[in-house]
Amino acid sequence: MEAQFGLAHLWNQGDFVTKAVAILLLAMSLASWMVIIIKALDLRRAATQARRTEAFWHSADLADGLNKLGDEPGNPFRQLAIEGREATAHHHAQPQLHDSLDVSDWVTRCLRNAIDEATARLQSGLAILASVGSTAPFVGLFGTVWGIYHALLSIGSSGTATIDKVAGPVGEALVMTALGLAVAIPAVLGYNALVRGNKGVVMKLNRFAHDLHAYFVTGA
Fold first, then answer.
1. Are 131 and 31 in contact (CB under 8 A)?
2. pLDDT tens digits, the chain, 220 residues: what are they?
3. Residue whose C-alpha is closest to residue 177's, from 138, 146, 140
4. Which of 191, 198, 220 minimizes the C-alpha distance to 50?
5. What are the residues whose beta carbons fall under 8 Å from the beta carbon of 160, sequence distance 6 or more?
6. CB atoms within 10 A of CB 60
7. Three-state SS across the chain?
8. Nearest to 47 by CA among 194, 193, 201
9. Please, which residues have CB within 8 angstroms of residue 220's CB and are 6 or more apart in sequence?
């Protein structure tokens, strides 16, 4: 009896639209969980990189400080230090249009560009979570409406509307709503958690950039 109300029965009895909705929800769930896991690992790595900035300021020179920041690809804190160093050196290299800016404005501009690039990398993938969180319930609701519509057609053709005839088809249709919520809720919670984590990393980047600006402009 339980097999008549399970997901396997829903799949076997469903038509093309029902199966397409189920596959779509599965794909949305997999995509959202992949983004959550990858971005969570990125935030954990960024937190480790942020802790190295304290050792950077206790280094003997800039080269030693860069080594202490680590050489992982995409390290935003190391990239900030490199951008500041190159901006300071490039400003005095040869006459160019940016010479109309003083060294403070030029270094500020370069550091801001580096922070913007790091922020864009941190936020990549969050649009997927936002899209899944906002659309998955409606995709599940569409599957529910479609299932109930066909259940009512089946009941009308049989001419009976007893509870044993209604419970199975309608219950299976409502499963689609539950699946939609099961996909949307982790996406929304993951999105909110990642946004909070990204704000923390950006705050640390801004603080480090402020200190770098003072170091490269004033040497102190």
1. no
2. 444 555 666 666 667 777 888 889 999 999 999 999 999 999 999 999 999 988 888 888 888 888 888 888 888 999 998 888 888 877 555 555 555 567 888 888 889 999 999 999 999 989 999 999 999 999 988 888 877 777 777 677 666 656 656 666 677 778 888 889 999 999 999 999 999 999 999 999 999 999 998 888 876 5
3. 140
4. 198
5. none
6. 7
7. CHHHHCHHHHHHHCCHHHHHHHHHHHHHHHHHHHHHHHHHHHHHHHHHHHHCHHHHCCCCCHHHHHHHHCCCCCCHHHHHHHHHHHHHHHHCCCCCHHHHCCHHHHHHHHHHHHHHHHHHHHHCCHHHHHHHHHHHHHHHHHHHHHHHHHHHHHHHHHCCCCHHHHHHHHHHHHHHHHHHHHHHHHHHHHHHHHHHHHHHHHHHHHHHHHHHHHHHHHCC
8. 201
9. 214
Model pTM score:
0.80
Q: Which two tokens stand for residue 164?
A: 């044993």
**49, 71, 125, 208 from 76: Cα distances, Å:** 8, 10, 18, 10
1, 115 contact by CB (below 8 A): no
- Please report the sign of the dihedral spanned by the C-alpha atoms of residue 55, residue 197, residue 77, residue 46: positive
The structure tokens 């202490």 sit at 68
